[in-house]
Amino acid sequence: MSERKAAGRRRVTQQDVARAANVSIAVVSTVVNGKSDTLRVSEQTRARVMQAIHDLQYVPNVAAQSLAGGRNRIIGAFTYQRMFPWESGDFYYDFLLGIEEEAEKTGHHLLLFTGARNEAGERSIFNRNTNVLEVADGSILVGGRIDGEEIRRLAEEGYPFVMIGRRNAAGGNVSWVAADYAAATQDVVDRLHELGHRAILMIVGSRTHETIVERREGYASACARHGLEPRMVAFAAPNPDVPEATPCLADEREVLRFAAEQGVTAVIAESSYVAHRLYETAQEQGVAVPGALSVVGLGDHGDRQNVLAPDPAVTVVRTPSRLIGATAVRMLLRRLESPARDGGTEHLRLTCDLTDGTTLGPAPGFR
Amino acid sequence: MSERKAAGRRRVTQQDVARAANVSIAVVSTVVNGKSDTLRVSEQTRARVMQAIHDLQYVPNVAAQSLAGGRNRIIGAFTYQRMFPWESGDFYYDFLLGIEEEAEKTGHHLLLFTGARNEAGERSIFNRNTNVLEVADGSILVGGRIDGEEIRRLAEEGYPFVMIGRRNAAGGNVSWVAADYAAATQDVVDRLHELGHRAILMIVGSRTHETIVERREGYASACARHGLEPRMVAFAAPNPDVPEATPCLADEREVLRFAAEQGVTAVIAESSYVAHRLYETAQEQGVAVPGALSVVGLGDHGDRQNVLAPDPAVTVVRTPSRLIGATAVRMLLRRLESPARDGGTEHLRLTCDLTDGTTLGPAPGFR
């Protein structure tokens, strides 16, 4: 058991067995694969290797032996949120569809870690000190909420995984694929600027995770580039990540009044849900969209806008969820195929497109 | 390797190891779990057990050791059809949703065998003589098309599995969960009879797999019970499973003409798609449904009616797909929990309900 401990919590490899038995990897491989023709191994050595295999709980997988690369060809999918069962209305649906599609294409099985819980019954990667993901060759971790401690431990153990949607929350030593919300927000400001808008308001929400912060940074940098004054309003609760001077408004009606007073011609809402409500309120109040006011939603995760877009008329930034899922699978396969790169990490930001809505138009009186 | 062969292609158990090493299972368990306090095992015996473990390629799974029952808590899902990626428009979607939901509820992971193919690249359970499903504790086989030879082999090997939707195609020694289409069809005839219908026509399709045959048997037996003459018409190609005298009609217009000529007051279509088209055609021709003619679809798989019902007005038999999926998981877990029952099989037929359509009504002039 102490040997097992010495090998750490990483997946036990033939190398670990070789070290414990004080033989070369070739000898371990010979013993494990029963190829007595390639290398002669004495009975004593064989017994020592078998003992090390036992002590370290090295798992020579039956299925793996018939497949190239010694893998099970199993990709895992795990999330801390409730993701299973995943239905078409769920935010994660499209990510998983992309993962599944790419797994199928590349001849891999997909293991949904529906049962991954700790002793307390909470979704967890580690249960009684065992990494439940180990059944899969590698895994994709989906979702916003994470347990940074577990992720760090996973990375330390050298377990191959790729994160979707989160960047630095788990520390630097993690590979990820994410939507490029900063660039998407910049693109929206660029497009609005091109259409003559000079007073562009951003409605920020109360959530402040890193993809939200990215959007705000994208907005700020694009405004700076165009020499525009960044203007933000918030809803309801004070938000520690927003400048203190940010006006706090009660609802969409107040936003419309504020916009009219301040000469705002375009509103970007972090939450697409808010963008939709603003559009509805404008229609009720007889404010022409996009004639008098352009409205764009940034596709905040919380409102599931990708799937449940209440009105396709509203122009929103669309998270390329399916593509992100597929890209994560390919990234994971690259990591599995070149274990030499284990130390390095790979990061990919994918471009978001705007939907074909009708709420983004030229500023009033623009050409 | 000969030992491995002798153990057959079943999952290698501690019992196999015990037999090969000529020791008791308790000794194998002691060696595998390292519990030297429960049973004293000499070094020679331990070496013999380790050798047998190696020869038989017995896999002492790391994850399993921390979980009750020595299982991975992985349920597999396999289909010969293209099932992955499964989207909400697919016929299999609801089955898988039920499977996933029940797996989540019972703390099991779900392994989608997206990559299960043979050397020829065809969906297959066996690849190079290896049962790819073995990575899962047991599996659920979904779908209409099957390879009877593979299923039989799977059953012979004692691999735990449950089939969805197919009954006897793979031989008697298989556990399954299926919709009770015979009872559903009988219920439809009973209901029509109750509403005064005495001339009930059935439109049969060209497909003749067992669930279709069941529907026809249900129709025939219910007609016999009520003393009604069974009346069938077919579309297009001659069908070897249908009485030779069955009239073959060109389309739904001909069905309406035929029904009017023969005094038919209700039509049951094997395919819900045909039921929908018949309803549309009746509307075009001014035939009152259900006033002059009642129309019911039997929910043929081929047309995906469960998900893509083009018009909720049409009354159809709904396959309880989600419940079937969940029931299959529970059946599989029963089989896993009581390996003693390995020889026996379990069969469950689940009741189908009628949808809340409006095309089923009293016969003309009935009370």
From TrEMBL, chains A, B:
Stored SUPFAM superfamilies: lambda repressor-like DNA-binding domains (SSF47413), Periplasmic binding protein-like I (SSF53822)
HTH lacI-type domain boundaries: 12-69
InterPro entries: HTH_LacI, LacI/GalR-like_sensor, Lambda_DNA-bd_dom_sf, Peripla_BP_I
Domain of life: Bacteria
Keyword rRNA processing: no
Entry keyword Transcription regulation: yes
Keywords per UniProt: DNA-binding, Repressor, Transcription, Transcription regulation
Gene Ontology molecular functions: DNA-binding transcription factor activity; transcription cis-regulatory region binding
Residues spanning the membrane: none
Gene3D superfamilies according to UniProt: 3.40.50.2300, lambda repressor-like DNA-binding domains
Protein's recorded name: DNA-binding LacI/PurR family transcriptional regulator
Source species: Nonomuraea soli
